[in-house]
Amino acid sequence: HKHSSTTVTNVKMIVSGFILLALAKQVYATQVCSPNSGPIFKDVVIVGAGAAGLAAASRLEEVTNGGVSYALLEATNNVGGRVQTQTLDFGGFSGNWVVEDAANWIYDFPGNPIMSMVQEYGLVIAQQDFFDFDAYDASGQSIPERDLSKMRRNWDAAWKCVQQESSSPYT
User: Any signal peptide, and if so, which residues (predicted)?
Assistant: First the structure.
């Protein structure tokens, strides 16, 4: 099922955890507290330790040279917001199937700040070929090529509609 790689030249894939780790390296926690630890007095409060919150804290550190105190609040025990890595069993196959819940791809368009971070931190990225894959149903059985072809046609039609309706040049 190999297609020309030019169809995906602007699409790059990276495991989202690497990006979050790169962001988190720039965030210097000033205090870890529990809800019962009393008031904290800071110049700035950043709500959420997802990608946007981590980026905000990183940028605040950068532009103020650490001269502004802040509290980075997160409601869960997980830094990264919706971006989480899970290890699952799948279709009767036990083992370490690593699944990323969000933010798996980086679109390499001009001015994308994520690509700047990839370059800054020397992260390894891989080009994704969306047409070279094997597919399995929930029971672990291989999905026949005729069904995959139909799924691809439906996907292509849906993606074309999204592109036509979108005001973003990056979809």
Answer: 1-29
